[in-house]
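Take one record.
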Amino acid sequence: MKNNIITLLGCLLLLIGTSCSNFDEINTNPDVSTSGNASMLLTGVELSFRPGNGKGFMYPFLFQKEFVWTEGAISDIQYNKLPRIDFAGYPTSTVVDNTVYATLKNVKKMEDAAIDTKNSVNAYRAVSQFIRCFKFFNLTMQVGDIPYSEALQGESGVYKPKYDSQKTILKSILSQLDTASVLFNRAIKNNESLSGDFFYSGSPSKWLKLVNGFKLQVLMSLSAKVNDTDLDVVNRFRNIVNNPDQNPIFTSNSDNFQIVYRDKEGEKKPFYTSGFEVYAVTTSFVIEKLKQLQDYRLFYYADPLAGKPEGDFASYAGLDPSAPNGTNLELYALGKASGINKLYYNKEYPQGFPYVILGYADVQFILAEAAVRGWITNPDQYYKNGITASMEFRMNNIDSKWVHGMPITSAYIASYLTKPEIQLPSDNDGMIKQIMWQKYLGSFLQNDWNVYFDYRRNGYPEFPINPATNKNEIADKMPLRWLYPDAEYNYNQENIQQALTSQFGGKDDENQTIWILKN
């Protein structure tokens, strides 16, 4: 076990040191099929983005107050207790499985296989860059500094990698995403394709949009660092938005970076075989907001109370996610709370609907926030684009038989956008709050931990916190980060202690402020 952990950590950035200077020298032949090894490795790497089933799938959504778990077995995360992560992966993310570093090793193998055969080299190198950036971004967003520049170098004898600062990591990620954009543009010019790609059927054009959209997400996560000239956040952001021909981004839900489930063994929706769906009860935090807005997404998210008529907003009620577990169990037993909509687990519907990792709606809300911050213009347009995309995603992917006679239609969306309750107010803080609420409502059982990452930056939506039930050490606050793995204290003690000292005065706890959140 010791050797495995050291090797995984030690192997981590053979990947990242790839030189960009020789890309022009690579000859690609679009008429020759991509290496089978590279193809199979890409498929395997992409599978690591699939969310798990049952409890593991639900962790972010319990923490983000979408659900109460009435079994009681994972109540700590419902009550704001983040566990230690494991640098092997768990629980870094529901879309990053328990083989994160092994996945990154396979990314390098995939890239090498493509180079060896000189087939679609630009495309495979570009997708490798993106996957590395995505995995490292989520990891650093959870804990702060991580092993980076010396990681994945076990074969070179680096078994105790140093920790790089979060600023260094994020600056490198932005640079690598720039490189990925260049490579995908070359792949498009050379008519290359990614064999083995089930996200975008091998299309470099689609991947290019994803890279630019993810770049916007990373830049928005740096909203507290707009005065850092090394990062140049605002100009980088503007360069993407103001140059759509060179830097295309998502233009509809058809561009979504998403997992599409199928009626095949191992590819069905998360709750299809878990048996845990009976414990998932929708919260009052979600339901009351949807009722207040007379928002038809309520009928897509929850079931009515037993014996109550479908399609009536009054027939739905949620549980307070901050209330004592015993209180919630009693209310649920009395039939006073709405369970999750049956479409999520009904056996007639094994494919469910896609799980969005980063979607068109998310990008539109990022653009809306950027406009409020003065980076670009037109916050209202982007905000309403985001709402429309969120509703159209449900409308176009869910059969109306599951929505209690209240389907979302184009006419309904148009009417919803005129509601006084959803208009942006005049003050910047009020606009940010409104944007974050709509982003939250559209992210129901989607988008992994991104809602929490937004909450840490902006404070919205304002999650209910009950000091009597809060498991965080600061009774009236949400935690700010996960804890480092126990294994690091055993096998990489000198470097982790140095990282803790440089970041947090030597203390590893959930309430320390990571660099990206500091003004």
Q: What stands out?
A: Residues 166-189 form the longest helix (24 residues). The longest strand covers residues 355-358. Residues 1-36, 89-98 have pLDDT under 50 and may be disordered. Strands lie at 11-13, 67-69, 146-147, 163-164, 257-259, 280-282, 355-358.
